[in-house]
Target: Extracellular solute-binding protein
Amino acid sequence: MPIARAAKRATARLGAVVLAGALLAACGSSDSSDSSDGAGGKVTLNVDLFGSFGFKEAGLYEEYQKLNPNITIKQSDTQDEADYWKSLQTRLAGGGGLADVQGVEVGRIASVTQQQSDKFQDLKEFGADKLKGEFAEAKWSAATTKDGKILGLGTDVGPEAMCYRTDLFKEAGLPTDREELAKKWATWDGYLELGKEYKKKAPAKSAWLDSVGSLYGIMIGQEKERYYDASGELIYDKNPAVKEAWDTSVEAAEAGLSAKLDQWSPQWNQAFAAGSFATIPCPAWMLGYIKGQAGDGGQGKWDIAKLPGGAGNWGGSYLSIPRAAKHKEEAYKLIEWLTAPEQQAKVFQKQGNFPSSTGAIEKIADAKDEYFSGAPIGQIFGDAAKEAPVQVLGVHDQNVMQQITNALSEVERKGTSSEKAWGTAKKGVDNVIG
Model:
């Protein structure tokens, strides 16, 4: 997330620019074994993603097409990962409308490996097993089935930090130095206390954070076990880490610290440029999204500090190939190239998506971002990536997350009590999981 990687991110991822919001039409799928689309062996590869993976923005498609003149790449985007996943499930069930390359958010990868392995190509058939040492072990193993099938190559991971508006902090009389802030909000209690100070002198129409859903998401990303334990048992309703993240988010909502914006909504997108919030929990992939939404006018107004409460991970994605894809071999060559260290480093430099390739991580260790006031993003996110826990992933991680954040929105927007909203979340989880 890709938010978004997270929610996306994005993921989350699992975003970096304003993207097409409509669901995709059929993307030229076929079971044909013919590897070309027309005269001269020309091949069009359809790449279907959610949010923004940064490939287009970093010029990688253009570069690949110059290296491979017989290849044309067409990318389609769905902004909201939940909409994307729902559409993908429909197409997988029917076998039609599938692209040659499909993005998969990290919160969905367990569903792919445990429940849908028959619908995705085993990349080992194209030699992907030789790449194992080039990726972080947690990233690699999550896309590998128990019987050894490799169903995706990792793009990014989502080490977490806190992004903030220095101009708004100054107006409210708060310090702007990233090191000083990291000390003041070393804990989440400290973060909320600083938010209450901000509220007293905040500029007009500006809240402390964008939404309590993003606060919850970033906090739960600091935990090894969230919704499932290592045995695969669903534990979200009795996990103290989930309760702590929920209670903290409820406190933020009841204290009026939130701008009450639904992530990925048009209003949320507009709020980046309008200064509607002063802080936003940001996995690395969020940097590109902020740049895209805040635009040139936001340059130098943003900065990045260490996250309260310790390191965590939110989002990250994979590139997979459906069994029904028309050009599987050509698609594999493309995704192997896109996820190679050189290309992952380029995406980070342009968009901020933190690489899952160990070679790329070494390349970007000293990177800084002038848009974010020269913040040492290589160090900030690199340290977070090293310290973040290796998370236990379950088949319905993303669904559980969505139901909980939906319920938090009721607290935030309607003033629903914590107890009633939690009951709504549990009913939602039961309905989704079945």
In short: Strands lie at 43-50, 71-78, 101-105, 153-165, 207-209, 277-283, 302-305, 313-320, 354-355. The longest helix spans residues 397-414. The chain has two domains: 41-155+314-362, 157-313+374-431.
